[in-house]
Amino acid sequence: QVQLVESGGGGLVQAGGSLRLSCAASGGTFSMYHMGWFRQAPSKERELLGVVRRSVITYHSNSVKGRFTISRDNAKNTVYLQMNSLKPEDTAKYYCAATSRYGSSFNFYADRSLYDYWGQGTQVAVSS
Which residues, 6 or more positions from 22, have their beta carbon under 8 angstroms from its beta carbon? Predict the structure, then answer.
């Protein structure tokens, strides 16, 4: 059983600012999982922002490409989401998730049902 705990959100950040979210994993072999960051805004579906495979190959959503970067540190059992040039429309709850299923495209990993474990989420609020 893998536990995922997100951090780095909370508070209010101004538009144009940056945040780095972290997701710490425990209870499993972190390096064996492909890790994703999702977000969900009120009344919207949860959407995939980026995935880092256990091989450290990454995929990013076109909606955040160039602003957000996903990465992982297997020695620290942690996956990160660096968010730059934040916009008010980035306001949402951000979740990390882990899957053991292999795929070779962003669209493959966008299927939420693939993920075995989810964190509880961390709130990001961006003011205009």
Answer: 6, 7, 8, 78, 79, 80
Neighbour-count burial of 32, counting CB atoms closer than 10 A to its CB (0-12 exposed, 13-18 middle, 19+ buried) = exposed
Q: How far is CA 65 from CA 4, 36, 82, 94, in A?
A: 24, 15, 11, 16
In terms of Cα–Cα distance, which of 79, 72, 91 is closest to 17?
A: 91
Is residue 97 within 8 Å of 50, Cβ to Cβ?
no
- pLDDT tens digits for 91-115? 999 999 999 999 999 999 999 999 9
User: What residues contact residue 98 under an 8 Å CB cut-off, 6+ apart?
Assistant: 2, 4, 25, 28, 33, 34, 35, 36, 115, 116, 117
Amino acid letter, residue 49: L
- Condensed to tens digits (0 to 9), the pLDDT of residues 59-89 reads 999 999 999 999 999 999 999 999 999 999 9
**What gap in Å lies between CA 108 and CA 112, rounded to an integer?**
10
